[in-house]
Amino acid sequence: MDLYTDYLIATDSQATATGLSVILDRQISHDKFTRMLKEGVFNSNYLWKKVKKMVRAIESEDGCLIFDDTIVEKEWTDENEIVCWHYDHSKARSVKGFNIISMIYHSNGISIPVDFRVVEKLLFSMITTEKEKEEVVQQKMSL
Question: What is the DSSP letter of 13?
Fold first, then answer.
């Protein structure tokens, strides 16, 4: 996993399991990386377990948490709970894609990601009438 993570950080082009295999002169099959990613559970708990010692080593009184949200556009992907419409403030319009909220701990000039969430939304396809749709929109607007 560390090797794959280093590859993701270092690559300046599209990252693929095949690309990493090629860099390693095919000493490790791309299928091995694909299986590792498919079978693993890479959630926020996994991330915290990996970075907790690093955060504890740099934490200080003036450390802070930084929150950021990122929208990755997926214009051609079918809508679902994750790939849906989000308002992109940098573009001043809604875009179809997925929204990730990340939390970074910053202290002593070092920033470490400590948590992330993928935003899931209720699908309108589950709503059967226009009245129900209007009610959901009104509820969301009041939040």
Answer: S
* Alpha carbon distance 90, 92 (integer Å): 6
Q: Give the pairing type, strands 84-88 and 93-107.
A: antiparallel
Residue with tokens 């590792």: 36
Q: What is the pLDDT of residues 76-92, one digit of tens each?
A: 988 888 888 889 988 99
- Host H or E run for residue 31: helix 30-39
Count CA atoms within 13 Å of residue 133 on its CB side. 8
Among the listed residues 74, 24, 106, 27, the one whose alpha carbon sits nearest the alpha carbon of residue 11: 24
Residue 127: alpha-carbon gap to chain centroid:
27
pTM, 2 dp: 0.63
pLDDT in tens, 19-33: 888 999 999 988 988
Q: Using CA atoms, how far apart are residues 100 and 68, in angstroms rounded to an integer?
A: 8
